[in-house]
Amino acid sequence: SAKAPVLELKDEPSESKDNNDSKESKEKREADGNKINLPGPLPSIPIPTLPTIPKLSLDDIMEKVHDLGEKIGEEIKDRVPTLADYFTVVDAVWNEFQLGNGSLYQSVINNMQDNSKNPEIQLDATVRQGNEICPQEMAFQAARKKKMKKAFAKFIGVKESEVHEDDIPVVALAGSGGGYRAMISSLGYMTAAKKAGLFDCTMYVAGVSGSCWLIAQYFTLGQRSFTKTLEHFKHALSTPIAHYPSFIDTMLTNPGAAQLILEGVVQKYSKNRVLTLVDAFGTVLASRLLIHREGEGDNGEWVDPLDFKLSQQSRWTNYGDQPLPIYTVVSHVLPASMPERIKEGDFIVDDDVEQDDETHYYQWFEMTPYEFGSEETCAWIPTWAFGRRFIGGKSVERIPETNLAILLGTFGSAFTATLADYYKEVRPLIMNKALSGSMDAYIEEYLDGMSLIHPLSPSCFPNPLYKLPNPVPEAETFSNRKNIYLNDAGMDNNLPFYPLLRPGRDVDVVVAFDSSADIESVPWFEKADEYVQRRGIERWPPISTKRAEQLAKQEGGPRIMTHVEIFHGIVADDRDADHVVTSEGEATSTPVSGKNTGSGHSLLVHPITLIYFPLIPNAKYQGDFNPGTEPFCSTFNFEVKGDQVALLAGLGEVNFSRGLENVRKVLKDTWLRKKAERLKREKQERKLRKVATVRPTLTNS
Question: What's the pTM?
């Protein structure tokens, strides 16, 4: 090619006469640092009737390839001392493209068969049907209670000898979605919770989207330290995730780290899995979030290879040293009338499965270090087996666990939203009040259809429920699907309430950190109310009703919010859970609720208390700082400078301090209630044992 890069190593390369670029465009390119800029906050997406394919001529394609090759050449030249070294590196890069011997691709393929690095390939997996908590989580609960006892006594200000393990409230921290904004602000909230002692009293920590990224980094690269995680953020987030030179640098200077990052896509490719943009996004994201950067002090070691296996986070939970992490995703189940959706280029994906009606919904799934599955489908597999093909409840192949890089992309794949979701996100950014009103009326006619179309395909995995024998009704749709498409859970609810309501976890207090956009009008509580009604869960407080009453008392305008709101599960007058049936059969109203089991005894249903922290401005902290209007806090922004990280995390810390004493009071009150219930129960049991002992004596006499 006449435009082939000149292989010269000079401090100031002279301009070539063949260079058609203007001096101004060259200076601009140099000023940009040869980085690939992301598009605006959101792509401009039309409402298509058929897939649109951009038309590029061969000349256009060759020009883009040439530009990229020239930039890669310049990046390499900056990192080698001699021309011979340059050619050595070029050969190495070319070898990678050719997937030749000694390439990262071949190294990954070889490692997939190494049972010393992937011990799970020696095991077969089966689907566990039912909704009981798995034995590993039960063991974790017992171990965690022992570890929490001292910390809980200190947090509520009593002697450790006064605390019985069974009385300690089961506390869950819940982080919302919202990209880097949620990841950083949740870090601030949890840092404050750690300093106050609450984190050490926590049983579960659950996340959606960006908060999942935070949890994953805390358990891996952050070395279970929020301080180290913060320092990593300050160094790692200042470069856009699409800045390819940083990845080239990683490949050239540390191929071992590059191999860990690429394992996920290589494994899917080698097994002929469906690759989507989400997989590429996760790979690039991992190169930012899971690799240590220079200047991180004692945090400067490359990440442990085991950290790329989510199941290995059990190393920190098996003995109760850390809360159990819960990651969430959803699958969009579409109506029966939708056409085939698997063919390349289609907008909608649902594996060509028909339902009995025209409804569509999001099915929630959770992943812990122990299991992946859903309470509603009553089906679970070991986390180390996620990514394998299953038929009839049994795995039919032995491959390594799905790489954490792929999972990070799946957890935070908000860009695979439906057209309706895109419109809701773009609407406040591009339209004034008058225009949005008329546009809403126009869009309303198409809204139902827009809620079914995903312009970008979600992440695709083999379906562990495929041909599952005797599935429950909720699992029948999935049992016919070879693949399962998983989305960011924020498409349904941006707070991970559902896995925390699962029977067997018996959560007493949920502390929710909400960093959602448009936080004054979020529908998360209405959605949660719909879920608990559908599932027959009686412990959940009627939050949407209370919030509606609060809004009605206002004189118009957006909802007036406070830095902490508390909702108790004992205030719902229309729920059976608020009326206790005692052992004597008398109905009464108390903080404890239950149903008669028919044997004269009540099945206690303990209420849940929600402590809600919305991410809103704080006049006592950088009074003019509003994360809802700052461009760097946008959901789709992936470049945050170190001082901006500190600013946003600091807001989370300060806001938590505003509600700390409220949290302390709720936990102490819950502890006193559970203690009183236990003492009463033990007294009744002693009485029954005494009666049982006396009766044989009277019979003999």
Answer: 0.79
